Amino acid sequence: MFVYRAFATCALLVGLAGGAHATVMYNNLPPNATQAGLDSIADDGPDLYDSFSTGSTTTVKTVQLLLATSGNLGGSVVVDLYSNSPGNPNTPNAFVAAIGTVSDSILSGTAKLITFNVNIPVTASTRYWVGLTDNNSDSNNHSNIEWAYATNANGVGVLNEYNDSDNFGSFLNGDGSFQGDFATSQPYMMCVSGGSGSGCLVPEPASLSVLGLGLLGLGFAFRRRIG
């Protein structure tokens, strides 16, 4: 009977911890994909975008970006959510909601994970775009932030999505090769998650605490049982 209860309790704790995980719509952060290089905001338009699609009506809770910087540290970028273009399924369109800003001063030449906690409702079966735009009009104070891009389209929700820059247009996520006559491009590295969770990389600390305390309690109970 004790063993049965132990397994049942453990399953419940694992279920509770799993239930607190985010609903992941897009995630090609390591270890899902490997960084191939860095794409500069200022050199490419300056706007850069990467798309993701929803499965159901939900709320985006977390956006995580892998970013670095080079050169002058006086600038910043604005991060926003955009709708998909109705007439062109692989092009960003209108502004939907602000996600946040990132200052060059908090970054270095090594890519760092930047996390935004947001509360943005999104519609089912719809493509959206995370976009990065230079925040400064002063030519002497442009941002030098760079967005890491991946070696391939591995990861959750990455395949069949698009990345875009103002200078070069939109490309299907891939490895930089050609699919028929259509060039693919290495996707920017990010995570977009919703539901009740707080990100793609780890469970919520509270969930891990519940699981840890439960397993600890089982351990003490088992020792008493066999003592």
Explained architecture:
The structure is a single chain. With 227 residues, the protein is of the alpha+beta class. The protein folds into two domains: 1-20 and 203-227; 23-200, Jelly Rolls. Helix content is 18%, strand content 44%. The protein has helices at 2-19, 205-226, and strands spanning 23-27, 35-40, 48-53, 58-69, 76-85, 88-103, 112-122, 127-134, 145-150, 162-165, 169-173, 178-179, 182-185, 190-194. The protein has an eight-stranded mixed beta sheet with strand order 6-5-8-3-10-11-13-12, with no helix packed on it. Strands 1, 2, 4, 7, 9 and 14 form a six-stranded antiparallel beta sheet that branches. Helix 1 runs antiparallel to helix 2. The longest helix has 22 residues, at 205-226. It starts with a helix and ends with a helix.
Topology:
Blueprint: H1 2-19, E1 23-27, E2 35-40, E3 48-53, E4 58-69, E5 76-85, E6 88-103, E7 112-122, E8 127-134, E9 145-150, E10 162-165, E11 169-173, E12 178-179, E13 182-185, E14 190-194, H2 205-226
